[in-house]
Amino acid sequence: MMVRTRIRFLLLFTPWVTVPLALLGVYLGLLGPLMLWTRIGWIVYGVGIAGAILLAGLLRRRYRLSILDSTSLGVMTWLQRRI
Q: Which of 8, 16, 39, 45 gives 60 a disulfide partner, CB atoms 3.0 to 4.6 angstroms apart?
């Protein structure tokens, strides 16, 4: 895969995908040691994943991404915030 194609693919992620994944990574990175030391650490995983799914659902209703034009030179997108 060409670098340009990979960058275009990464940039087409909408906020309702990228924000929950980023927060889930930070959440699991910070609480990883806690999960290893306690017996019920698996609950922290479930809470983090459920929270990320809930946040994605909330952001999905709020943001909409439309692809206006796609050529070999690039992609023209429009990010709209719904009220």
A: 16
- CA 45 to chain centroid: 17
Question: What domain count does the chain have?
Answer: 1
* Tens digit of each residue's pLDDT (9 = 90 or more) over 14-36: 777 888 899 999 988 888 887 78
What would the pLDDT profile of 41-55 be if each residue is shown by its tens digit? 788 888 889 999 999
Is the separation of the CB atoms in 8 and 77 below 8 Å? no
β-bridge pairing 63-71 and 74-81? antiparallel
**Residue type at position 2:** M
Q: In which domain, by residue range, is 10 found?
A: 3-81
Tokens representing 45?
A: 């995983």
CA distance 57 to 71: 30
Token couple for 1: 């895969």
